[in-house]
Amino acid sequence: MLKLRAASILDLKLLRLWDTKQHIIDCDPDSDWNWEIELKRQPVWREQLMIVLNGNAIGMIQIIDPYEEETHYWGEIAQSKRAIDIWIGEEEYLSQGYGTIAMGLAIARCFQQPEITGILVDPLKNNINAHRFYERLGFEFLEERIFEGLECYVYELKKPL
């Protein structure tokens, strides 16, 4: 059984380990998540969730309100959006459908809020597997953008009517 639970400082060692794995680096090469600090913070604009399969953490999802997020990473944006980052940390759980299930849970969580009309993701331009993953989930390509010096594709999943 797969579920999402709030990340905590107790996940620090595991998240640091995942940050050293090549498949994670390939998706986010320049990122420093500052886990030691961020796992202790709980800003109203962010949820950090561990993906848990049968009691074992296998990945992470972050859901943010890009309008309220303090760095303004997404720039000018409507208040009716959410943005999601996801990664499966353990290689043996890649390409097994767990990311799809976890994204389904995260998407449902976002769209439970009546004011949310769309969810954004920003995979690297060269991450063809991520593009296919998001497209299978119904995300539509919006544009190519540079975020923090990295070429990304922006996709959006619109709330079903």
UniProtKB/TrEMBL annotation:
<dbReference type="InterPro" id="IPR016181">
    <property type="entry name" value="Acyl_CoA_acyltransferase"/>
</dbReference>
<feature type="domain" description="N-acetyltransferase">
    <location>
        <begin position="2"/>
        <end position="161"/>
    </location>
</feature>
<protein>
    <recommendedName>
        <fullName>N-acetyltransferase domain-containing protein</fullName>
    </recommendedName>
</protein>
<dbReference type="GO" id="GO:0016747">
    <property type="term" value="F:acyltransferase activity, transferring groups other than amino-acyl groups"/>
</dbReference>
<dbReference type="InterPro" id="IPR000182">
    <property type="entry name" value="GNAT_dom"/>
</dbReference>
<dbReference type="Pfam" id="PF13523">
    <property type="entry name" value="Acetyltransf_8"/>
</dbReference>
